[in-house]
Amino acid sequence: MIIYVANRAIQFVLALIVASVVVFALMSILPGNAAQVALGTNATPDAVAALEAQYGLDQPPLIRYFNWVMGMLTGDFGTSYVTGAAITPVIVGSVQVTGILVIAAIFLAIVIAVPLGTFAALEQRNWIGVTISALSQIGIAVPNFLAAIILVIVFSLTLGWFPSQGWMAPVEGLGGFLIRLVLPVVSLALVQAAILTRYVRSAVLDVMREDYIRTARAKGLTRTKALFVHGLRNAAIPVITVAGVQLATLLVGAVIIEQIFVIPGIGSELVRAVANRDLVSVQGIVMVLVFLVLIINLIVDVLYPIVDPRIRNAS
Amino acid sequence: MAENLLEVRDLTITPAGAEAPVLHDVSLSLAPGERVGLIGESGSGKSLTAQSVMGLLPEELRAQGTVSLHGFAGNVLEAKEKTLAKMRSDLVSMVFQEPMSALNPLMRIGDQIAEVLRIHGEVARGDIPGRVLDLLTSVHMPDPDSARYAYPHQMSGGQRQRAMLAIALANSPRLLICDEPTTALDVTVQKHMLDLIAERVAAVQAGLLFITHDLAVVAGVCDRVIVMYAGRIVETGSVHQIFTDPQHEYTRGLLASSDLEATDAHGKLFTLKTALSYAGPVDGAGSGEMPGHTNEAEPVNEAEPVKADSTAAGGPADVRDPASASARETGAADESAPLIDVSGVSKHFRSRGLLRRRSPVRALDDISFSVTSGQRLGIVGESGSGKSTLLTILSGLDRPTSGRVRVGDIRVESASAPALRSLREDLQIVFQDPFASLDPRMRVEDIVSEPLTARGMAREERLARVEEMLLAVDLDTKAMRRYPHQFSGGQRQRISIARALVTRPQILVADEPVSALDVSVRSQVLNLLTDLVDDYALTLLFVSHDLGVVKHLCSDVIVMKDGHIVESGATEDIYANPREDYTRKLIAATPSLAGALASIT
Amino acid sequence: MSENPSTTSAGETSMDRRRRTKLRLNASMVIGAVLIFVIVALALVSFVWTPYDPSVVDPVARLQAASPEHLFGTDKFGRDTLTWIMYGARITLMVGIVAVGIAVLIGTPIGIIAAVFAQYPWGVWLSAVIMRANDILLAFPALLLAIVFAAVYQPGTGPAMVAVGIAAIPGFARVARSGTMQVLGSEYVRAAKASNRSAPAIAIVHVLPNIAGMVIVQASVAFAISVLAEAGLSFLGLGTQAPVPSWGRMLQESQQFLSTQPELALWPGLFIALAVLGFNLLGDGLRDRFDPKMEARGNG
User: Fold this and answer.
1) Per the database record, which ranges form the ABC transmembrane type-1 domain (chain C) (predicted)?
2) Exposure of C19 by Cβ count < 10 A (0-12 exposed, 13-18 middle, 19+ buried)?
3) Which of A59, A309, B228, B535 would bridge A63 by S-S if both were Cys, CB 3.0 to 4.6 A apart?
C-alpha cells in the first residue's frame, strides 16, 4: 500500500515536471517573444528590448525556465507584463472561487446520479428505468452553457428567484453567497449528473451480473439487498474513476459558466489574460490548472486501494 | 408427494422472445437426505434446472411448471423475490462453479460466512465469530483462524471453494445444490473437494443435487443419477444401473465416450455413434495396477506403426543430468539423435515496477528431456506446473532464462529470425480454447491458410491445400467461406488442427486441445488426432492436465509440478509403477469410470 | 457435421442472441444516424442554397420572432437565423472531422505501437514512456489546450480544431492500446506467430480488424466532445471568429437578448444538443454492437 502510494506520488511529480516544461515551451519559446506580444506589433524595438530587460526575457530559456519554476515553488508566479501587478494573489483568489463552484457541482452531481443510476439499473426493464436512461442521454447532449442560459431564463428572468449573475464571497454575507451560487452550480451539476448517472447505471448493471451477487442471493438476500450490501462498493471503482475525470474537466469547463454569471474564477482570469495577451499570467494559470488536474488523478489513484483490497495487496 | 424434499414437475423454460424452449418438461424428485447427480453436457439444461430450484433464473427466461420444496409453501417458480430469499436462507444452499467470481472480492471470508448466519438469524450475534471458525474448521480449511481475515484473492482455488462450501452449509440447509463445484479445480484438489462434499452432506443430513458433466465424478458422491440431453431428461437410475446397464442411447454414448480406457475394434475411442459395441467399464481397473487393464490398453498401441520406437527407445523421455546429456546414448536407439532435445531449461519471470522488487517466479526450473522422431510424448501437470511455459519455449514464442533447446538442427534458444521461421515450418501448435484460437473476423479459409500465406504461397495453391486439409479433418469444404462463430466447439478444434497441419509439419504440439470440449466431442477429436498422427507420421507433444487422455494417446509421459519434472518414462510404466508420491497422488485422484464403478460395488 | 448436437444448439442460441442484440441496438443507432444525417444535410444544402445571404444586414427586420419569412426569426442585425444555423453546421462538422481525424490518425497508431512494444523486453520501457506521456497529455483537457492555443496563436477555427484533436489523442491511444493488448494476448495471435506471421502482418490482419469497432465507437464519442468544445470556445470568443457563422458564437451573442428574445438562444442551443446527442447515440449503439463482451462464447 505504501509502496503503491509512493509509486503514484513519484509518477505525479514526474508528470508535473514534464507538464511544466511543455507549458513553458509553448508559451515562451514557440511564438517568439512575450514582450513583443504584450506590447503589440506596433511597438518599437527599443520598447520591446526595454521590457525584455526589465523582466529578464533576454536571458537564455533554460535560466528563465529555472527562475519560473523556482518562483512557483516559493509561491511567486511573477509579474504581469501587461498590468504590472503580481500574479499570485489573482490566482489564489480565483482558484478558491472556482474550487467552491466545482466541488459543490460535483457533490451535487454525485448526490443526484448515484441514487438515480442505481434505480435505473434496478428498474432496467420498466418504463421508469428506460425514462431515466433516455433523460440522462439527452442531459449529456446539453452543453452546460446552454443549461445555464435556460436556467437563467426560467429562474432568474421569468421567476426572479435567483440573480442572473454576480458573485459574493462567503465572508461578505452567507445568504448572498449561497443565492448567487445556486444557478451556476446547478447548471454545472446537471450535465455532470447526467453523465454520471449513465456510468452508475452501467456499473450497477455489470455488478448485478456478477457471480457474487448470485451467491448473496443464494445466501438469502433479496436482489435489491444483495446489490446494496455487495454490489455498490464494487460498482464504486469505475464510478470513482469517472467522477475524478469529471472533476478535472469541470475545473476548466467551468470557465464558460464563470463568464455567463460574471464570476471571478480562474477560468475568467485565464480568458481575460488571453484576451489581454498577458502570456505570463496565462502560463501561471495553466500550470495551476494542470497541477490541480494531476492532483485529482493522484487522489483517485490513492482511493482505489482503499476501496479494493486486491490493489492494496498487489503492491 | 409431501414425502419428497424436492419435487419438480413439467419444468419448461423459454427465453423471452424465443419460440423454442431450452428446457422441456423436466420432472424430477429428491427424497430427504438423498444424493442425486444431474449429468449433462453443455447446453443440456442442467444448470437451468438447478437455478429454477433456487429461484435464481435470469430474468430474461420464462419458466412454466411447478417446483415445490418441503417446508416451502407454494410454487418456487411463481414466488416473490422476498419469499424466495427467505427460502434460500432457510432451506436451500448452492455451491457454484467458479469460486473466485462467486465470492465478493472486497469482503473478508469470515464476514462473508458471518453474513449467512446473520440473515438466517438462528445464531446469537455474540456466537457468530465462534460459529464461523467452526464452519471453516469443518470444511478442513488450513489455518481456519487466519482464513477468516483473508480476502478471496489471497486464497487458492481449492481454499476458496472450501469457503464457498462453508457459506453454503452455514444455514444448515435441507438441500445443497452443487453446480460443477470441482470443474475449475485441479484434479488432486477436486478429489479432496468431492470427499469433503460427501462428508459434510452426510454429517448435516442434507439432500444433495450435484450437477456435473463428468460421469466419473458423480459416482463417489451420489446415489442416483439423472441424465439430461438437449433440455430433456433422458434417463434416471441408480449409479450402478446407469454405469452397468444404461437404457438410453445417449447415456450409453456418454458412458462409452467418457471411458478413455476402452477402445473399439479399430483401437479407437468410442463415440456416440460407435457406443453400441461398448461393453461397459472394466471393474477394478481404476487403480492402474491390475494387469487386466494393461491388456485392455494394449491393442491401442499395437495399432500404431510407431510402436517400434516407443519400445525400442525404452523411455527416451527420462530426465537426464544436463552435464552428461551429450554423453548419454541408449544402446537400443536406432536413430542417430533425438528430434527434440531440451537440457537444463529454466524460465524465470520478474515482475516489473518502479519501486517494486519481487523475487522472480520460477516457472521452469532445470528441465531436461528429449523426444525421438515419431514419439508421442505426453506432458502432464496441474495449473502452475509450467507445462504451458515449456510449450511456449519449445515453439520459439519465448526464450528460456537459461538452458538449451534443440529442435531438429535448430538451436531454439538462440535462433535467428530465419531459423525460427524454419522451426515453425516443422513445428505447429493446436491451442486449448477453440473459441479463442480462431480470429473471429477471419474466414475459415484465411485462418487455415495463414501459415501458407506467411510462406508467400500463391492463393490458388493455398486454397487447394486448405480444401485438402479440411477434408482430412472431416469438415465440409463449404466451411471455407464461413466464420468461426458459425461452428461448434468440436468443429472449431478441427479447424485449428487443419491450420496446424496445413504446412505438413514434422512435429505437432497440442496444448490441452480437448479440455474445453464436451466428453462426446472429445473422443472424436482424439480419434482424429490419432489418425492424423499416423497418416502424417507426426511426432506428437501433448500437454494436458488429464492423465486419462494422455494415457490413451501417448507412448511416453513427463509429469510436471511447480516447474520441475517429477517423473518421466513410458506411459504404461508410470501408470503401473509410479515412483514418486506426487505421481501416485495424481493417478489416484484422476477420476475414471472403472475406478468410480469399483468404488460403489 | 452432426458430431455434437448439444454444442451446436448452444452455438445457435448465442447466434440468436447476437441477432437480437443487433436489432435492439439499431434503435439507438438509427436515431443517432438520423440526427447526424439532418445536420450533414443542413451543411451540404447551405453550399447550394440558403433562405438568405448570411452577411446581408437588414435593420428593419432585426430581432424578429419566427415567421413565414424567417422560420427561426432574425438576430440583432436582422440576419436570418435559419441561414446561420445552416452555415454553422459546416463549422461544427469541419471541426469534428479535422479534430477526430487528427486524434484517430495519431492516437490509434500510438496505442498499437505501445502495445506491440510492450511485448518485447527492449520495448517495455519505451511503451511505458509512451503511455506516461499520454497520461500527461490527459492532464490538458480539450478546452484548456484550446485556450492555450488561442493565447499562443490567434484565436480561430484552425487552432481550435488542432487543440481539440490533440486533446483527444490520449483517448484513442488508450482504446487502441488496450484493444491491441487483448488481441495480441489471444490464442489466435499466438497461432499466427506460430504460423510465422511477421509483426506488421499480425498488426494488419488481426489487430486492425479486431480493434476497428472500438476505435469507431471512440471516434463517435470524440466527435460529440469536439462539437461541444468548438461551441464552448466560440462562446468564449476563442474559437471561430466573426463574421463566420458558428453556433457557439450565436449562443453567446443571444445572451444580451435573453429577456426579450430567448428564441435567439434556443435555436443554436438546440442544434448543438442535437448534434451531440446524435453522435453519442450512434456511439452507444456501435459500442453495444462491437462490445467484446457480446462476442458469443457458446460454452455454458
Assistant:
1) 89-283
2) exposed
3) A59
Grid-cell match 482570469, residue found: A269
> Which cell goes with B411?
538451436
Q: Please say whether the beta carbons of C218 and C172 come within 8 A.
A: yes
Q: Are B163 and B113 in contact (CB under 8 A)?
A: yes
What are the beta bridge partners of residue B213? none
pTM of the model: 0.80
Cα(B428)–Cα(B501) distance, integer angstroms: 7
Q: How many domains does chain A have?
A: 1
Alpha helices in B359-501 (DSSP H): 387-394, 417-426, 444-448, 450-455, 459-472, 489-501
Q: B254-273, pLDDT tens digit by residue?
A: 888 888 888 887 778 888 77
Check if the beta carbon of residue B282 is closer than 8 Å to that of residue B259: no
DSSP per residue, A120-175: HHHTTTSHHHHHHHHHHHHHHHS-HHHHHHHHIIIIIIIS--S-SS----GGG-HH
What letter represents residue B544's amino acid? S
What's the burial of A312, exposed, middle or buried (CB within 10 Å: 0-12/13-18/19+)? middle
Domains of chain C: 78-293 (1.10.3720.10)
Angle between helix axes A127-141 and A174-208 (nearest 10 degrees) is: 120
> How far off is chain C from B275, nearest CA to CA, in Å?
13
Residue B444 CA to residue A193 CA, distance in Å, equals 47
ipTM > 0.85 (yes/no): no
Would the CB atoms of C190 and B437 count as touching at under 8 Å?
A: yes
Q: What angle do CA C90, C96, C102 make, to 5 degrees?
A: 130
| DSSP classification of residue B319 | -
Q: What is the pLDDT of residues B198-246, one digit of tens each?
A: 988 988 889 999 999 888 888 888 989 999 998 899 999 998 888 888 8
Residue A169 lies in a domain: yes
Kind plus residue range of the DSSP H or E element containing B481: none
Q: Which of C136, C169, C221 to mutate to test binding with chain A, by most A CBs within 10 Å of its CB?
A: C136
Omega cis (within 30) before A115: no
Average pLDDT, chain B: 83
The pLDDT tens digits for B317-350 are: 444 444 333 333 333 444 567 889 999 899 887 6
Coil, helix or strand at residue B253: helix
On whether residue A291 sits in a domain, the answer given is no
Hey, which residues 158-197 in chain A have their CB within 8 Å of chain B? none
The CATH number of whichever domain residue A97 belongs to comes to: 1.10.3720.10
Mean pLDDT value across residues A127-135: 88
Residue with cell 468440436: B490
End-to-end CA, chain B: 31
Residue A158 lies in a domain: yes
Reading the block at residue A244, the C-alpha cell is: 475524478
Residues on chain C touching B475 (C-beta within 8 angstroms): 1
pLDDT band with cut points at 50, 70 and 90 for residue B282: low
Which of B104, B118, B119 has the highest number of chain A CBs within 10 A, making it the mutation to test binding with A? Answer: B104
The CA distance from C137 to A294, in Å, is 11
> Any idea which residue has 502432464 for its cell?
B380
Residue C65 is classified by DSSP as P
Which contacts of A174-180 are long-range, i.e. CB under 8 A and separated by 24 or more positions?
A: A180/A261
Would the CB atoms of C206 and B424 count as touching at under 8 Å?
no
Is residue A126, in this structure, part of any structural domain at all? yes
Full domain range(s) for residue A165: 88-265
How much is the average pLDDT of C125-147? 86
Full set of structural domains in chain B with CATH: 1-91+177-242 (3.40.50.300), 99-172 (no CATH), 246-281 (no CATH), 340-346+361-590 (3.40.50.300)
